[in-house]
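SAMPLE LOG
Freezer: B-3
Tube label: C17
Construct: single chain, 86 aa
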Amino acid sequence: MHEMGVRSEHAYTAAFASIGLTVAAWMTSLKAESGTGLARADRWGLFVGEWAPTFFGVGLALSHYEQDDGTFTASVHEFQQRQEAG
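STRUCTURE (predicted):
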């Protein structure tokens, strides 16, 4: 995945977005399908909510890869150099 351009920050962003999407899916299902009750809204929220740990795991794996590969360290140094350069 790293060679395809996916970085740990992307996976972490997807994890946090899925947490927000969980709440949105639960609220939408609760309002749009009021006749089906709370159980269906809970199932939608749980379905989307199960994505977050997967994205966090992928982010952690990519982070370890970036640290071992030197990509993470290089990007931190580049960031510091850009800030110093102004």
